[in-house]
Amino acid sequence: MKTINKQKLVIVGGTGFVGQGFIKNFSPELFEIHSLSRHAFMPSKNDATIYHAVDLEKAEQWQTIVADADWVIDAVGILFPNPLKHQTYQQNSVNPAKLVIDILKKETKPKFLFVSANTGPFFMKPYLKAKLEVEALAKKQLKNRAFMIYPGIVFDKDRQSSYLPGIFINKFKRLSYFDHLRAISRTKFSSEVEQILLGNSSPLLKRTVAIK
Q1: What is the 3-state secondary structure (H, E, C) of 6-32?
Q2: Tell me: the pLDDT tens digits for 177-199?
Q3: Are 109 and 69 in contact (CB under 8 A)?
Q4: Which CATH superfamily is domain 7-153+186-205 in?
Q5: d(CA 18, CA 32)
Q6: Where are the beta strands (DSSP E) in the chain?
Q7: Predicted structure pTM score
Q8: C-alpha–C-alpha distance, residues 205 and 212, integer Å
Q9: What are the extents of the domains in the chain?
Protein backbone atom coordinates (compact mmCIF):
# COMPACT_ATOMS: atom_id res chain seq x y z
CA MET A 1 0.00 0.00 0.00
CA LYS A 2 1.37 3.40 -0.99
CA THR A 3 2.01 5.73 1.93
CA ILE A 4 0.80 9.30 1.47
CA ASN A 5 2.92 11.96 3.11
CA LYS A 6 0.51 14.54 4.43
CA GLN A 7 1.29 18.20 4.03
CA LYS A 8 1.10 20.26 7.18
CA LEU A 9 -1.16 23.29 6.78
CA VAL A 10 -1.52 26.12 9.25
CA ILE A 11 -4.59 28.27 8.64
CA VAL A 12 -4.39 31.65 10.32
CA GLY A 13 -8.03 32.50 10.94
CA GLY A 14 -9.16 28.90 10.71
CA THR A 15 -12.30 29.53 12.79
CA GLY A 16 -13.61 32.22 10.44
CA PHE A 17 -15.96 31.89 7.48
CA VAL A 18 -13.28 31.27 4.84
CA GLY A 19 -11.05 29.25 7.15
CA GLN A 20 -13.87 26.93 8.13
CA GLY A 21 -14.67 26.45 4.46
CA PHE A 22 -11.13 25.19 3.92
CA ILE A 23 -11.31 22.90 6.92
CA LYS A 24 -14.65 21.40 5.89
CA ASN A 25 -13.51 20.71 2.34
CA PHE A 26 -9.78 19.93 2.42
CA SER A 27 -8.95 16.23 2.35
CA PRO A 28 -7.84 14.92 5.78
CA GLU A 29 -5.97 12.17 3.92
CA LEU A 30 -3.77 14.76 2.23
CA PHE A 31 -3.36 17.40 4.92
CA GLU A 32 -2.64 17.72 8.61
CA ILE A 33 -4.48 20.91 9.42
CA HIS A 34 -3.78 23.35 12.24
CA SER A 35 -5.82 26.46 12.96
CA LEU A 36 -4.57 29.62 14.66
CA SER A 37 -7.21 31.94 16.08
CA ARG A 38 -7.60 34.35 18.93
CA HIS A 39 -10.21 32.38 20.83
CA ALA A 40 -10.70 28.74 21.72
CA PHE A 41 -12.94 26.80 19.33
CA MET A 42 -15.02 23.68 19.80
CA PRO A 43 -14.75 21.56 16.62
CA SER A 44 -17.45 19.28 15.30
CA LYS A 45 -17.23 15.56 15.99
CA ASN A 46 -15.60 14.66 12.66
CA ASP A 47 -13.20 17.61 12.54
CA ALA A 48 -9.61 16.35 12.86
CA THR A 49 -8.15 19.88 12.81
CA ILE A 50 -5.85 20.86 15.66
CA TYR A 51 -7.05 24.20 16.98
CA HIS A 52 -4.68 26.61 18.73
CA ALA A 53 -5.86 29.72 20.57
CA VAL A 54 -2.99 32.20 20.26
CA ASP A 55 -2.14 35.88 20.30
CA LEU A 56 -0.32 36.62 17.05
CA GLU A 57 1.54 39.44 18.78
CA LYS A 58 3.17 36.80 21.01
CA ALA A 59 5.22 34.77 18.57
CA GLU A 60 6.37 32.37 21.27
CA GLN A 61 2.83 30.99 21.35
CA TRP A 62 2.76 29.91 17.71
CA GLN A 63 6.14 30.13 15.97
CA THR A 64 6.94 26.46 16.58
CA ILE A 65 3.56 25.50 15.08
CA VAL A 66 4.37 27.12 11.74
CA ALA A 67 8.10 26.32 11.72
CA ASP A 68 7.73 22.92 10.04
CA ALA A 69 4.56 23.67 8.07
CA ASP A 70 4.44 23.16 4.33
CA TRP A 71 1.94 25.98 3.93
CA VAL A 72 0.69 28.86 6.05
CA ILE A 73 -2.61 30.25 4.78
CA ASP A 74 -3.69 33.74 5.79
CA ALA A 75 -7.49 33.72 5.96
CA VAL A 76 -7.70 36.60 8.44
CA GLY A 77 -9.46 39.84 7.66
CA ILE A 78 -12.66 41.83 7.63
CA LEU A 79 -14.87 42.78 4.72
CA PHE A 80 -16.02 46.06 6.25
CA PRO A 81 -14.62 48.11 9.13
CA ASN A 82 -16.68 48.52 12.29
CA PRO A 83 -15.84 51.64 14.33
CA LEU A 84 -18.07 50.49 17.20
CA LYS A 85 -15.91 47.36 17.58
CA HIS A 86 -12.71 49.27 16.77
CA GLN A 87 -12.23 47.10 13.69
CA THR A 88 -10.20 48.61 10.87
CA TYR A 89 -8.49 47.18 7.81
CA GLN A 90 -5.10 48.07 9.27
CA GLN A 91 -5.77 46.49 12.64
CA ASN A 92 -7.72 43.43 11.55
CA SER A 93 -6.31 42.60 8.12
CA VAL A 94 -2.90 44.17 7.51
CA ASN A 95 -1.29 43.93 10.95
CA PRO A 96 -2.00 40.20 11.47
CA ALA A 97 -0.49 39.44 8.06
CA LYS A 98 2.61 41.47 8.90
CA LEU A 99 3.11 39.47 12.09
CA VAL A 100 2.88 36.19 10.19
CA ILE A 101 5.22 37.36 7.42
CA ASP A 102 7.80 38.53 9.96
CA ILE A 103 7.97 35.03 11.43
CA LEU A 104 8.02 33.31 8.05
CA LYS A 105 11.09 35.34 7.11
CA LYS A 106 12.88 33.40 9.86
CA GLU A 107 11.25 30.04 9.21
CA THR A 108 12.32 29.25 5.69
CA LYS A 109 10.33 26.07 5.02
CA PRO A 110 6.68 27.22 4.87
CA LYS A 111 5.13 28.70 1.78
CA PHE A 112 2.67 31.54 2.37
CA LEU A 113 -0.74 31.71 0.73
CA PHE A 114 -2.61 34.98 1.07
CA VAL A 115 -6.31 35.30 0.33
CA SER A 116 -6.41 38.59 -1.57
CA ALA A 117 -9.16 39.87 -3.89
CA ASN A 118 -9.59 40.16 -7.63
CA THR A 119 -11.42 43.49 -7.61
CA GLY A 120 -14.46 45.15 -6.09
CA PRO A 121 -16.92 48.02 -6.47
CA PHE A 122 -15.67 51.59 -5.96
CA PHE A 123 -16.68 51.71 -2.30
CA MET A 124 -14.38 48.76 -1.56
CA LYS A 125 -11.24 50.70 -2.49
CA PRO A 126 -9.92 50.82 1.12
CA TYR A 127 -10.42 47.05 1.36
CA LEU A 128 -8.47 46.47 -1.85
CA LYS A 129 -5.75 48.88 -0.74
CA ALA A 130 -5.21 46.80 2.41
CA LYS A 131 -4.96 43.65 0.29
CA LEU A 132 -2.36 45.27 -1.98
CA GLU A 133 -0.31 46.34 1.02
CA VAL A 134 -0.07 42.77 2.28
CA GLU A 135 0.69 41.45 -1.21
CA ALA A 136 3.59 43.86 -1.64
CA LEU A 137 5.03 43.03 1.77
CA ALA A 138 4.77 39.27 1.23
CA LYS A 139 6.42 39.44 -2.18
CA LYS A 140 9.24 41.60 -0.83
CA GLN A 141 9.95 39.56 2.29
CA LEU A 142 9.18 36.00 1.17
CA LYS A 143 10.01 36.15 -2.53
CA ASN A 144 9.00 32.95 -4.34
CA ARG A 145 7.46 31.48 -1.16
CA ALA A 146 4.62 34.01 -1.38
CA PHE A 147 1.48 33.04 -3.28
CA MET A 148 -1.63 35.19 -3.75
CA ILE A 149 -5.12 34.09 -4.72
CA TYR A 150 -7.70 36.45 -6.12
CA PRO A 151 -11.31 35.46 -5.48
CA GLY A 152 -14.24 37.79 -5.40
CA ILE A 153 -17.06 37.36 -2.91
CA VAL A 154 -16.98 33.88 -1.35
CA PHE A 155 -20.54 32.77 -0.69
CA ASP A 156 -22.30 29.97 1.12
CA LYS A 157 -25.76 29.28 2.51
CA ASP A 158 -24.25 29.36 5.99
CA ARG A 159 -23.92 33.13 5.56
CA GLN A 160 -26.94 34.69 3.90
CA SER A 161 -25.26 38.10 3.66
CA SER A 162 -22.80 36.60 1.16
CA TYR A 163 -25.03 33.94 -0.40
CA LEU A 164 -27.61 36.18 -2.03
CA PRO A 165 -25.09 38.67 -3.52
CA GLY A 166 -22.99 35.73 -4.73
CA ILE A 167 -25.92 34.14 -6.52
CA PHE A 168 -26.86 37.49 -8.07
CA ILE A 169 -23.32 38.18 -9.35
CA ASN A 170 -23.02 34.69 -10.81
CA LYS A 171 -26.31 35.10 -12.64
CA PHE A 172 -24.89 38.05 -14.58
CA LYS A 173 -21.27 36.91 -14.98
CA ARG A 174 -21.70 36.91 -18.77
CA LEU A 175 -21.15 40.65 -18.38
CA SER A 176 -17.47 41.50 -17.91
CA TYR A 177 -18.04 43.69 -14.84
CA PHE A 178 -19.75 40.90 -12.93
CA ASP A 179 -17.30 38.32 -14.26
CA HIS A 180 -14.40 40.28 -12.76
CA LEU A 181 -16.21 40.34 -9.40
CA ARG A 182 -15.50 36.59 -9.40
CA ALA A 183 -18.19 35.38 -7.02
CA ILE A 184 -17.34 31.82 -6.00
CA SER A 185 -19.00 29.33 -3.70
CA ARG A 186 -17.09 28.46 -0.56
CA THR A 187 -16.92 24.82 -1.63
CA LYS A 188 -15.55 25.66 -5.09
CA PHE A 189 -13.10 28.14 -3.59
CA SER A 190 -11.77 25.50 -1.21
CA SER A 191 -11.41 23.04 -4.10
CA GLU A 192 -9.37 25.55 -6.11
CA VAL A 193 -7.13 26.32 -3.13
CA GLU A 194 -6.58 22.62 -2.48
CA GLN A 195 -5.35 22.22 -6.05
CA ILE A 196 -2.88 25.07 -5.52
CA LEU A 197 -1.59 23.44 -2.34
CA LEU A 198 -1.02 20.25 -4.33
CA GLY A 199 1.05 22.11 -6.89
CA ASN A 200 -1.58 22.42 -9.60
CA SER A 201 -2.70 25.50 -11.50
CA SER A 202 -5.81 27.58 -10.82
CA PRO A 203 -7.30 30.67 -12.45
CA LEU A 204 -7.43 32.20 -8.96
CA LEU A 205 -3.64 32.61 -9.03
CA LYS A 206 -4.00 35.50 -11.49
CA ARG A 207 -5.83 38.77 -11.06
CA THR A 208 -7.92 39.65 -14.13
CA VAL A 209 -7.98 43.42 -13.63
CA ALA A 210 -5.36 45.95 -12.59
CA ILE A 211 -5.87 47.61 -9.22
CA LYS A 212 -4.26 50.95 -8.46
Answers
A1: CEEEEEECCCCHHHHHHHHHCCCCCEE
A2: 999 999 999 999 999 999 999 99
A3: yes
A4: NAD(P)-binding Rossmann-like Domain (3.40.50.720)
A5: 18
A6: 7-12, 31-37, 50-53, 71-74, 111-115, 146-149, 154-155, 184-185
A7: 0.94
A8: 18
A9: 7-153+186-205
